[in-house]
Write a structure and sequence with these properties.
With 64 residues, the chain is an all-alpha fold. 78% of the residues lie in helices and 0% in strands. The longest helix is centred in the middle third of the chain and has 42 residues.
């Protein structure tokens, strides 16, 4: 799995290890993905209207 390390995460990883439970981590990641998807869909509505949004959501489902 690809991990993008932000400066915030890098600083946290340098601090003494604190154990984050895997389920919490997973929900956090999925929440990030969902929020990115909502931003993308909002931009698509602004740019290309409903049709572009439908096509994009179909592509998104295919990727999942």
């Amino acid at each position: 799995m690809l991990r993008i390390i932000t400066p915030d995460q890098r600083a946290r990883s340098m601090s003494p290890p604190n154990i984050i439970s895997a389920p919490f981590n997973r929900t956090f990641l999925s929440r990030q993905i969902i929020s990115k998807y909502f931003v993308m869909s909002f931009l698509l509505i602004k740019l290309g209207g409903i049709n572009a949004l439908l096509v994009a959501s179909l592509e998104y489902v295919k990727v999942m």
